[in-house]
């Protein structure tokens, strides 16, 4: 029996792709369609990563030679992620297997436009053009792909999140607690958020930045000390599972002033938990957060505007609570697994696969 093979990073790794596939798994999609998931990447050293990739190629090629692959669904980001997966696409094309390219990379436009020469651009376009479907995370990314690829089958399918049964009571949240999750550094706006928080500190002395993730931890810590924010910074390390739920339940707002994004799972998870979002209008974020409704959007790098909106949300709890309720409702109607996964299933069915 031919199967759908899905490729992506290990489900115990950090990052957005793993978060998305875990939702697929927990919502039963992999079970309903008998999907074989093969991890092509893992956290750790170079040797461990190479073994994961090599093992994935061996497993996939073995399935191809046994005639067991009917459809390939590949979750792709930029740079090493794309090149690591390119060989799987080549094998699928050689064996006549239809493929889905599911694009997640927040920096893919930069990777393609600034880091790829003519030959590499041709390879990227060739893979996009030959796939049976290209899935992107927002209408903004759909327009970008349509600008570089002649593939007529580009679909915008949002990342799904699991909606908690209910949001935590607002009175249980910690006043002044600002949560941000992801790889700390300039791209995620970590330093902008530190500077904005320092500016509002005189009027909001209870402000506490709770930053969860890996990345430039020492540099963030040093910058906080320079700004007089050392006592108002809590570096959480990478959080997931129950720890993430606890952080979402205890915060008053979620902030992610990124310079580029796909459609960050952390924003959707915060919205599902009933948090207002302070972010930037990049990637798919404006399709999740309408400025002034589910939160506020400020331009990347505009620290003055970021500080003003941060102060507004910290000082007006009624506003923050209303926006948090609107955010949860938006997820329920648009981004929950119940709202999103039927579109993935429809795509599978159009490509010849029905539920088991």
Q: How many domains comprise the coordinates?
A: 2
CATH topology of the largest domain: Rossmann fold
Assess the beta-strand content as a share of residues.
15-25%
Spatial strand arrangement across the major sheet: 2-1-3-4-5-6
> What are the low-pLDDT stretches, counting only 5+ consecutive residues below 50?
none
Distance between the termini: 11 Å
Q: Helical content, roughly?
A: 40-55%
Largest sheet: 6 strands, parallel
- Give me the CATH superfamily of the largest domain: Glycogen Phosphorylase B
What would you call the shape?
A: globular
The top level CATH class name of the largest domain: Alpha Beta
Level-2 CATH architecture of the largest domain: 3-Layer(aba) Sandwich
Assign the structural class, choosing from mainly alpha, mainly beta, alpha/beta, alpha+beta, or little secondary structure.
Answer: alpha/beta
Write up what this structure looks like:
With 356 residues, this protein is α/β, with parallel strands linked by helices. It folds into 2 domains: 3-160 and 337-350, Glycogen Phosphorylase B (Rossmann fold, 3-Layer(aba) Sandwich), CATH 3.40.50.2000; 170-335, Rossmann fold (3-Layer(aba) Sandwich), CATH 3.40.50. 48% of the residues lie in helices and 16% in strands. The chain is built from 15 helices and 12 strands. The chain has helices at 16-26, 29-32, 46-65, 80-94, 108-115, 118-130, 139-148, 190-200, 217-226, 241-250, 265-272, 285-288, 303-315, 317-335, 337-350, and strands at residues 3-9, 36-41, 69-76, 99-103, 133-136, 154-156, 177-181, 208-212, 233-237, 253-256, 277-279, 295-297. The strands form 2 sheets. Strands 2-1-3-4-5-6 form a 6-stranded parallel β-sheet, with helices on both faces. A 6-stranded parallel β-sheet has the order 9-8-7-10-11-12, sandwiched between helices. Helix 7 (139-148) links the parallel strand 5 (133-136) and strand 6. Helix 11 (265-272) packs across helix 14 and helix 14 (317-335) runs parallel beside helix 15. The radius of gyration is 21 Å and the shape is globular. The protein starts with a strand and ends in a 6-residue tail after the last helix.
């Amino acid at each position: 029996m031919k199967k759908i093979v899905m490729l992506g990073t290990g489900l115990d790794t950090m990052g957005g792709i793993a978060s998305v596939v875990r939702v697929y798994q927990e919502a039963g999609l992999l079970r309903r369609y008998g999907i074989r998931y093969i991890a092509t990447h893992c956290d750790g050293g170079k040797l461990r990563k190479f073994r994961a990739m090599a093992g994935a190629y061996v497993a996939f090629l073995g399935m191809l030679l046994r005639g067991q692959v009917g459809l390939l669904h590949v979750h792709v980001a930029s740079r090493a992620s794309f090149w690591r997966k390119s060989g799987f696409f080549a094998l699928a094309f050689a064996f006549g297997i239809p493929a889905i390219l599911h694009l997640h990379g927040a920096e893919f436009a930069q990777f393609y436009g600034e880091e790829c020469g003519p030959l590499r651009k041709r390879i990227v376009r060739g893979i996009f053009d030959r796939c049976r479907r290209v899935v992107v995370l927002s209408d903004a990314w759909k327009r970008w792909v349509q600008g570089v690829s002649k593939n007529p089958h580009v679909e915008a399918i949002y990342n799904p999140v699991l909606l908690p049964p209910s949001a935590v009571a607002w009175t249980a949240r910690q006043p002044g607690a600002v949560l941000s999750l992801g790889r700390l550094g300039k791209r995620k706006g970590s330093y902008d958020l530190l500077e904005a928080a320092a500016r509002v500190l005189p009027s909001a002395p209870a402000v506490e930045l709770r930053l969860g993730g890996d990345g430039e931890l020492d540099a963030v810590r040093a910058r906080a000390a320079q700004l007089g924010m050392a006592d108002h910074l809590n570096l959480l390390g990478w959080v997931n599972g129950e720890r993430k739920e606890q952080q979402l339940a205890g915060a008053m707002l979620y902030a992610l002033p990124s310079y580029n994004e796909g459609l960050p799972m952390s924003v959707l998870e915060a919205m599902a938990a009933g948090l207002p979002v302070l972010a930037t209008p990049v990637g798919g974020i404006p399709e999740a957060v309408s400025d002034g409704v589910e939160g506020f959007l400020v331009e990347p790098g505009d620290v003055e505007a970021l500080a003003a909106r941060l102060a507004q949300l910290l000082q007006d709890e009624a506003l923050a609570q209303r926006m948090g309720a609107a955010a949860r409702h938006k997820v329920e109607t648009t981004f929950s697994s119940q709202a999103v996964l039927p579109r993935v299933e429809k795509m599978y069915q159009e490509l010849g696969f029905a539920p088991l």
